[in-house]
Queue: 2 jobs
Job 1
Amino acid sequence: MSPAHDLAAFDCGNEDLNDWLKRRAVASEGRSARTTVLCDGQRVAGYYCLATGAIERESLSSAKLRKNLPDPIPILVLGRLAIALEYQGRGLGKALLKDAILKTITASEIAGVRALVVHAIDDAAAQFYQRYGFVPSPLNPRALLLRIETARAALGL
């Protein structure tokens, strides 16, 4: 993402996601997060951002999820994912999520990242992520985790 991208017209229907893209994405770029944009010309049709993080092993809900993981667990955080209203319903959210998962797998090969974590903005978003193998936390059903092994299997890698 760069200042050349047209962010002004972006509207995904959620003011928090719109505001983050328009006011914070460029400032965060290269510092605390990386934002990937999907464009129609210079106009942004969708975006997601990734940041590094870590979670405590004991915060995972089951022994199966905790199995063979270090403490703390190095992760990537999918901080935001949004598609502009006029581009919704075309599979672009799925495409951006797949790209984020592929980048997470690459990071796992380079730096030992073990999972992708997302804090879904609402219940519908949580259901979207669950369709792609993310597992909700029993403490917060909108906090979801996708282990690298699960991601690889889902993508046939």
Job 2
Amino acid sequence: MFKKIIKFLYLKVKYKSKNLKIKSVNIPIKSVFGHSNTIESGVYIDGLFEIGDFSYINKNTFLSNVKIGKFTSISSNCSIGGSEHPTDYFTTHPILFNSYYGAKKIIENNPKETLIGNDVWIGHGAILKQGIIISDGAVIAAGAVVTKNVPCYEIWAGIPAKKIKTRPICKLPYGVKEWWNIDIKRIQAWDEY
């Protein structure tokens, strides 16, 4: 627990100028943060982690080897990029491939990176398989189990998750397509959506 607190304090000091709100102590020290991120209590991050400006993660969410874009909203109780077990052995239990159990043959643990784009909304309790891509503007419904890549601006729901519709793409001023790369004051000045 002492190591977790030291890591927590280190991250708070390292990113002090970025206006972060970190309430979780389960964050790897090599994590990369953007500006104005919020990481709520009970969030557990394993492996590589990067999060873009103004994105947030709500309570009790697990993430493993995840890269998140800007302005992305992740609800509570989600599982993103969790580990997998081999299904071609006689057992899926890690006793055969994990050194913790004294396994002689250790399986290379090369977890796949899960990519979550910009302006994505992931609903409460969603599960995202490791190695998939959730593209810009996508919405994942509460409770969805996503096992495939999700294209831009699509809304997916269900078990397994499937496309239910496409989000309307608003006409952005000045011919802008990637609004998340514009200065925040200019974004806040827009009066039409």
